Amino acid sequence: MTLSSYWGLHPTEIGHASINQQDNRVHLVIEPGAQGYSDAQLTDYDPQERDFTLRPPLTMTITAYSETSLQVGTAGFGFWNYPFQPGQRRFRLPQALWFFFGAPPNNMALALDVPGDGFKAATFNAQRWQFLAMLPVALPGFLLMRIPALYRSLWPIGQQALGVSEAALSRDLLAAPHTYTLDWLPDEATFRVDGQVVLHTKQVPHTSLGFIVWVDNQYAIVTPQGQFNFGVTPVEASQSLTIEHINLEKR
Q1: I want to staple 119 with a disulfide (CB 3.0 to 4.6 A). Which of 169, 222, 228, 248 is the partner?
Q2: SUPFAM superfamilies this protein is in (predicted)?
Q3: Burial 21-54 (b: 16+ CB within 10 A, else e)
Q4: 145 vs 149: CA distance, rounded Å
């Protein structure tokens, strides 16, 4: 893959977003503008087709940073199944392994003792049969999770069913170039930052996924206590994610 073709990846610009190449780097940028969804992303799949071909064993290596403070929305890089897009009705139960950043009000508080916002290494798999089996008792479960003692004792069962494994990372990492590696194997995954392991987990999806690196202005609120909300946050200052290197290697 060559830099001139964005490593052979599909560029997508939605709303007030742009992708440009400068000084041997690729910049994903969202700019202030009218309220609405803005997204700059690179994917190994055509977003219109959502035909995923990546399966383990696979290693992602990416060197990235943000030249501007990420004040709103989300950003990250890794593998997912593109469950939905704002303004579209198509939906599939989400799966992901990635390095993910979410600014408030984003709140994906799915791992015990890991904040719902901020920067993290994370896995998620809502297509596990264990999660599907719990859906009939979801409503009373949400109510029980509002009792702190029950949440701490019972939510690990829900977290396991969802295939959630997370490790919080310092937001300061995004301010300077760092190399992020994700080794995705059939039964485990290892996340590294500059060669240091930050998360090792056996909670991994087993189906084909797509690669994505992005920055946008949407947020999601999903909590064990039954809080659900999705939307976009106005962009008041330019935000960017700069990519120096991407490599996807079949092992």
Answers
A1: 169
A2: Concanavalin A-like lectins/glucanases (SSF49899)
A3: eeeebbbbbbeeeeeebbbbbbbbbeeeeeebeb
A4: 8
